[in-house]
């Protein structure tokens, strides 16, 4: 009997010893795998392990657990990603997952932005808005219904597109654009632009038909530039040029350049031709005079012998 008791005690001691060795081995193996260290950590980690990444973060950073297959890997961030909110405590700062309907949240019970298909109302995400509110697909929120004459709006006070026959100005719809505004092709009221002109230039030279000589009265001109063209309903531009009468210096216009030289040359040539023609006509007249005188002289000579013969015949 005693031998049996001694055998049982020895067996129990042996089992306890074997279990202790196995636990010690597992602890050493986990310690080797985990590799907890405060040196060589990156990305804001204060302590880390090879298998689990960051275990604790440096001050003011949040620890966030990212899933990698079947395990979670710790990273340290300055702010929590979408779908998580941050909590701070003296020991550590954690990123906690928002509710399933929230895209971002302030805490587990207060959403800041909803996922697609839901609309935010008082920190909650709902598929349909309460009475008096309408869902906004752009804001993903429940907003007041659009004002009268408004086709679409940002909220109950700000319109983004007006109904037919109305014009949008500063989020409000108008039947007619207010003073100093005018409608454009997009049915919006835009500021009216008036014409702006610069200062007058100096008066130009006094001339007439492009000449500044040879006449007593002429005109002089001054101009100014358009600095700003008007919009369709803006004040149109006034005259940009003015003319007035003036006195042209009464002096003879002098010939200029090759044209005047050619004109003078043609004039001299014509004068020469006219002189030659006059001389030729004079020679012809002189020749006619000489021929007439010769003819008269011959006639006189012929009449004289005839008279002498008549006297001689009378004597006989």
Overview of the molecule:
This protein has 316 residues and is α+β, with helices and mostly antiparallel strands. Helices cover 29% and strands 31% of the residues. A hairpin with a 3-residue loop joins strand 1 and strand 2. The protein starts with a helix and ends with a helix. 11% of the residues are buried.
Q: How are the SSEs ordered, and which strands pair?
A:
Elements: H1 2-34, E1 45-49, E2 53-57, E3 62-68, E4 71-77, E5 84-88, E6 93-97, E7 102-107, E8 110-114, E9 119-121, E10 124-126, E11 133-136, E12 141-144, E13 150-153, E14 159-162, E15 167-169, E16 172-174, E17 181-183, E18 189-191, E19 196-197, E20 217-223, E21 226-228, E22 241-247, H2 257-315
Antiparallel strand pairs: 1-2, 3-4, 5-6, 7-8, 9-10, 11-12, 13-14, 15-16, 17-18, 19-21, 20-22
Question: How far do the termini sit from each other?
Answer: 239 Å
Radius of gyration, whole Å:
60 Å
Helix run count: 2
* Share of residues in strands: 25-35%
Sketch the topology as an H/E string, one letter per element: HEEEEEEEEEEEEEEEEEEEEEEH
Helicity range: 25-40%
Q: What characterizes the major β-sheet?
A: 2 strands, antiparallel
- List low-pLDDT spans: 1-6, 8-34
Gross morphology is: elongated
- Structure classification: alpha+beta
Quaternary structure type: single chain
Q: What is the count of β-strands?
A: 22
- Order of neighbouring strands in the sheet with most strands: 1-2
């Amino acid at each position: 009997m005693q031998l049996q008791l001694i055998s049982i005690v020895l067996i129990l001691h042996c089992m306890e010893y074997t279990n202790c060795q196995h636990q010690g081995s597992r602890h050493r193996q986990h310690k080797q795998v985990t590799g907890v260290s405060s040196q060589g950590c990156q990305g804001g980690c204060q302590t880390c392990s090879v298998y689990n990444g960051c275990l604790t973060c440096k001050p003011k950073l949040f620890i966030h657990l990212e899933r990698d297959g079947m395990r979670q890997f710790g990273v340290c961030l300055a702010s929590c990603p979408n779908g998580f909110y941050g909590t701070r405590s003296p020991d550590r700062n954690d990123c906690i997952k928002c509710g399933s309907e929230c895209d971002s949240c302030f805490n587990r019970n207060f959403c800041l932005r909803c996922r697609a298909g839901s609309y935010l109302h008082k920190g909650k995400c709902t598929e349909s808005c309460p009475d008096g509110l309408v869902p906004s697909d752009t804001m993903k929120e429940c907003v007041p219904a659009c004002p009268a004459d408004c086709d679409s709006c940002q909220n109950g006070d700000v319109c983004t597109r007006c109904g037919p026959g109305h014009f949008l100005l500063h989020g409000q719809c108008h039947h007619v654009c207010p003073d100093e505004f005018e409608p454009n092709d997009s049915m919006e009221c835009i500021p009216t632009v008036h014409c702006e002109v610069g200062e007058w230039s100096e008066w130009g030279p006094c001339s007439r038909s492009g000449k500044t000589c040879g006449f007593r009265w002429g005109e002089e001109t001054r101009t100014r530039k358009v600095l700003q063209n008007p919009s369709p309903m803006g004040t149109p531009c006034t005259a940009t040029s003015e003319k007035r009468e003036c006195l042209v210096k009464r002096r003879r216009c002098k010939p200029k350049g090759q044209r005047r030289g050619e004109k003078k040359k043609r004039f001299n040539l014509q004068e020469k031709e006219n002189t030659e023609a006059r001389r030729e006509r004079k020679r012809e007249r002189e020749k006619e005079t000489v021929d007439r005188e010769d003819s008269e002289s011959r006639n006189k000579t012929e009449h004289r012998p005839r008279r002498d013969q008549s006297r001689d015949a009378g004597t006989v």
